[in-house]
Design brief:
Length: 104
């Protein structure tokens, strides 16, 4: 059987006990580990590094406040962020910058 895909979920709050990391969901083909700031936004950069170090295939973030520390901590893992405007929030490059870098 193939190895299960893994995701890291960074949130300000989650309801899985008092630990800052917990297994949120596990089925044979997919695992989601949650990392909670436990209501303290200053913890998010530290937790973002923990998420990256765990080596997930993809990272999930619910809002810009959680996605920004992930962007700063990562190079090669895709981030799925549920946020209003990823360009103005600094999560996605602006099209003009892509054009200057040779992307068409």
């Amino acid at each position: 059987m193939a190895q299960a895909a893994a995701a890291g979920w960074l949130s300000l709050f989650h309801s899985q006990g008092s630990s800052s990391r917990s297994r949120l969901w596990k089925v044979p083909i997919f695992i989601i580990d949650g990392y909670s700031g436990e209501g303290v936004t200053d913890r998010l950069p530290e937790l973002a590094h923990q998420v990256v170090q765990s080596g997930p295939d993809i990272i999930l973030a619910i809002a810009l406040i959680m996605a920004q520390p992930l962007k700063d901590a990562i190079v090669a893992i895709p981030i799925v962020a549920l946020t209003g405007d990823p360009v103005s929030g600094g999560l996605a490059p602006v099209w003009r910058q892509l054009q200057r870098d040779g992307v068409r």
